[in-house]
Amino acid sequence: MGFFRENIGIDLGTTSILVYVEKKGIVLSEPSVVALDRNTNKILAVGEEARQMLGRTPGNIVAIKPLKDGVISDYEVTEKMLKYFIKKAIGTSLFKPKIIVCVPSGVTEVEKRAVVSASNQAGASKTYLIEEPVAAAIGAGLDITQPDGHLIIDMGGGTTDIAVISLGGIVVSRSIKVAGNKFDEAIMRYMRKKHNMMIGERTAEDLKINIGSAYPLDQEKYMDARGRNLVSGLPKTIKVSSSEIREAIEEPVAQIADAVHSVLEKTPPELAADIADKGIIMAGGASMLGGLDKLLQKRTGIPVYVAEDAISCVAVGTGKALEHFDVLASSVLKKDTMYY
User: What is the pairing mode between strands 16-21 and 8-12?
Assistant: First the structure.
């Protein structure tokens, strides 16, 4: 049992949840999946153990992803999942923790309140919200309090947040519901259409991670994909090339490039000059798609860099916001996004 309050930062992602404990760093990184028994409504597994059950459960067990497109789609399951992760991260404590949760920049007031309410019900003493691109910028080591323009692209599983940040606030932003999960869906559709083969989400994700690219590679990559033949109904294995995956995800990649272009068009000229000088920073798991930085650089004419620890960037930024809470409370954690 803990005798001191340990404050927590949570990157509440559509695909995975990262928990940052003050003065300890990231202590937990697990998929945001919950396995439930439909008959009893009892939680059977959370996180990685539940992810292993996706697409492999009997009728009475269902593996649920309670977050969709960066926001809560199943309130009760999200609350139970948060409670589980908070307890796993800090154990049982005499004092309720103060929690900062990341949300996409385009969330509505209703969606914000749902996150705050779920966090408070899960055991927070107070919950504060921080927008994901701001947390990503802090996590990438940028000094966002200066009057300089920074363009951050945070690509997770459910949303891509593009924001121009200066003086601790967002000047121009756009949040689109196109990110890693849409890439997986596009690969599944492509395999169905091109090869008459149905593959699962995990296979699609493996193809994306291992051979996926947004820009032509110097050397073609190949990977075996296993699924079900839609004609014969029998199991089937085929060899898939990286150029096929690039063709499959062409549309969602183009949507992201268009969104970046539209944000740059709305950026004030002084800040646009800063961005042209400093470059664009990419963070989030989906930003690690091969060649995506090269494609955006070609499209915008501005250097594009992937943050050093892209997957953990937002969680680290949330943790830094916790540790410099007094400094950032008036700017980054704005009053209109503070709920008690």
Answer: antiparallel
CATH of the domain at 216: 3.90.640.10
Query: Which stretches within 158-228 are classed as H helix?
Result: 180-195, 201-211
Give the burial string for 71-82 (b: 16+ CB within 10 Å, else e).
bbebeebbbbbb
The CA-to-CA distance between both ends of the chain, in Å, stands at 25
What stretches in the chain show pLDDT beneath 70?
1-5, 55, 57, 93-94, 325-340
CB atoms within 10 A of CB 330: 10
Whether residues 302 and 162 fall in one domain = yes
Contacts of 209 (CB under 8 A, 6+ apart): none
Give the Cα separation of 177 and 159 in Å (integer). Answer: 4
User: Is residue 28 helix, strand or coil?
Assistant: strand
What's the domain count of the chain?
3
Rounded distance between C-alpha atoms, residue 336 and residue 58, angstroms: 45
pLDDT in tens, 105-157: 878 888 888 888 888 888 888 888 888 888 888 988 888 888 888 999 999 88
Residues 38 and 94 grouped into a single domain = yes
Query: What's the maximum distance between 2 C-alpha atoms anywhere in the chain?
Result: 63
Reduced to 3 states (helix: H, G, I; strand: E, B; else coil), residue 107 is coil
CA distance 41 to 237: 37
